[in-house]
Amino acid sequence: MKARLFTVVGLLAALVAPLVLRPQQAIKVQSQLVVVDVTVTDGHGRPVTDLRRSDFQVFENGKSQRMIAFQSHSFKSRAPEPRPEPKSPAQVQNGVFSNIDARSHSPSVPSLNIILFDELNSSFESQKFGRQQLIKFLKSLPPGQPTALFELRESLKVMTSFSTDPSQLVAAAEKLVPYRSGWFVSNEEAGSEVSRRALLSRMGRGMPPPPDTGAALNRVRSRGLGQRLRITLRAFRSLADAVAGYPGRKNLLWLSEAFPVRFSPEGTVGRPNVMASSTAARLASLQVAVYPIDTQGLAGMENQGSTSGSVAEGKGPAPVAGLLNGKRQWLWQSQTAMDSVAEDTGGRAFSNSSDLQGAFTRVFEAGANYYTLAYAPTDQNWNGEFRHIKVTVRRRGLHLAYRRGYYATQWSPSPALAEQKFLKAMYPGIPQATMLAFKTVVKPTGPNTHVLIVGYYVSGEDVAFQNSKDGRKRAQIKFAAIAYTRNGKPDSVASHLVTLRLKPKEFGKILRSGIFFRQPIQLRHDDDRLCVGVLDKQTGSFGTLDVPMKSLDIEH
Predict the structure, then answer these.
(1) Spatial separation of the C-alpha atoms in residues 234 and 88, rounded to whole Å
(2) Is the model's pTM score more than 0.85?
(3) SS3 for 15?
(4) pLDDT tens-digit map of 360-406
(5) Cβ atoms within 10 Å of 464's Cβ, excluding its own
(6) What is the 3-state secondary structure (H, E, C) of 477-515?
(7) DSSP code, position 462
(8) What is the Cβ-side half-sphere exposure of residue 322, based on CA atoms within 13 angstroms?
(9) What is the residue extent of each domain of the chain?
């Protein structure tokens, strides 16, 4: 059976036509614009929502900038319209799957909320406390606020995609299970000679620990910090891919005990981490504000202030003083990293409090009431340097939160790197990418068959077309599908690269009707999941879907 491009109005076209991919009121950001979301609160921490464009002024590296666009966003809790939840994160209706759920981001909802429950950088106790507080908060969450829940261990996992149903979010949070990270050492584990020796012996697989357990533990922590930094940055990049297709502000609540990431060059030794700076640029371009929330509760403050006298000043017995200084150092580094990440992205850090529910509430409230400013920098030299942003308002006594700068880089995709990222994203359990929105229909060719027809639909407006010398519009799109066994092994692959060279009339039709494609894939008896994806070769943007076989009603 030959894969082919088709433009007839069939099942897929009929079903996707009424579905809206983008809210109409979102600001469209061009590459030369800098977009800054600003939350404004009064002296009591309450959102200020009555400011106008003329009240704001934006500076870049000390120079005043002219605003190109301005929007005010506010949200009031309301009961959502009754509508059934999808059977899976990807399914929309009648067998049509989409990597973007249009219901999750309507013009009446100004922002999305993402909860990252970080078990990689947290101890058992802080995970238990954070989980308990999160479930209590979600049970009282007003309906109508799209929220997604992710879990971070050695990799990122989707617990639930965006939902406005608090009961679905609670059910997902209750599935969070405490996990012992092999790269994280808590202050409790470092708190006594017995626990340190036991920990070092376990890590050394039974080998006796060295005499100076404090110094050895600091070396272990340093190695673990580097690994946790890499895993955490990869998780942030996966999150960025997962929310790239949703316009507007995204509030990322990062629930953790330790925060190994810094984005801006301030406070770093030597050159900034390249992966950290590129991740920061990616988050900034997608309007993601990070809210680090310390799940230690009051434990962090107690650990920080539990020493006194000569030992607290490092003058007591050398091993004890070194240990206490080490504990304070790790706490200080974590909390300064929290403040740095929040300031760099326009969020706010919460620590040294047992009222995590109050922190969640303040984040949801502040993140749903904000202003969006956009300006074209007077300095158009995109040299990769960090540029500082300052926003002021005329009214006194107000507190502003916004990202404090950005890296002046223009992203030029590498085709080989884009292909590699695309294939890695097409794996079960990986958060589905939304950089390129698409819809798909998966149908068997007939009864008692293991051949599926995968149909794709992509909006022509979402694909990058180039002008050819002959006056035609050219684009290259890869359509792929991979079937996986129950053990997570790839079993069957279908992939096709489509090259479009369109005359003006054909191009106009594509913009109006979209791009349709279909191809077959052969299944095996134990295939359990189907991952479907579309890649725009010109930009490197892609979208992916993870479709459970059981949702297709296929007889194995």
Answers:
(1) 25
(2) no
(3) helix
(4) 998 998 888 999 999 999 998 888 888 999 999 999 999 999 999 98
(5) 15
(6) EEEEEEEEECCCCEEEEEEEEEEEEECHHHHHHHHHHCE
(7) G
(8) 11
(9) 4-23+414-552, 34-74+369-407, 109-354
d(CA 343, CA 346): 5
From residue 74, alpha-carbon distances to 344, 345, 365, 450, 508 in Å are 23, 20, 9, 50, 37
Which run of H or E residues covers position 151? strand 147-152
CA–CA separation, 442 and 329 (whole Å): 55
CA-CA-CA-CA dihedral for 74, 76, 77, 79, to nearest 10:
-110
Task: Give the mean model confidence (pLDDT) for residues 225-229.
Answer: 88
> What is the C-alpha separation between 273 and 265, in angstroms, rounded?
9
User: How far apart, in whole angstroms, are the C-alpha atoms of residue 516 and residue 456?
Assistant: 6
Tell me what pLDDT residue 272 has.
52
Q: According to CATH, what is the number of the domain 109-354?
A: 3.40.50.410
The sign of the dihedral angle between the CA atoms of 54, 60, 63, 68 is negative
3-state secondary structure 283-323: HHHCCEEEEEEECCCCHHHHHHCCCCHHHHCCCCCHHHHHH
Decide if 27 contacts 372 (C-beta within 8 A): yes
**Bridging pattern class, strands 451-458 and 515-522:** antiparallel
Q: Which residue has the tokens 């479709």?
A: 547
Phi, psi for residue 479 in degrees, rounded to 5:
-110, 130
Task: Say if CB 247 and CB 227 are below 8 A apart.
Answer: no
Query: Mind listing the pLDDT tens digit for each residue in 267-280?
Result: 444 445 678 888 88
What secondary structure letter does DSSP report for 205? T
What is d(CA 396, CA 43) in angstroms, rounded to the nearest whole number? Answer: 10
Among all chains, which residue has been given the structure tokens 């984005």? 263
Question: For helices 213-243 and 274-285, what crossing angle results, to 10°?
Answer: 30
What number of residues does the chain have? Answer: 556
- Report which DSSP code applies to 211: S
Q: Under CATH, to which class is 4-23+414-552 assigned? A: mainly beta
| Distance, C-alpha 120 to centroid of its chain | 16
DSSP conformation class of 469:
T
In this chain, the answer to whether the domains covering 4-23+414-552 and 109-354 adopt an identical fold is no
3-state secondary structure of 11: helix
Contacts of 198 (CB under 8 A, 6+ apart): none
Residue 206 identity: G
Q: Which residues 6+ apart lie within 8 Å of 113 measured at CB?
A: 145, 146, 147, 148, 250, 251, 253, 363, 364, 367
285 burial via Cβ count (<10 Å: 0-12, 13-18, 19+): middle
Q: Is 145 helix (H, G, I), strand (E, B) or coil?
A: coil
**DSSP label of 215:** H
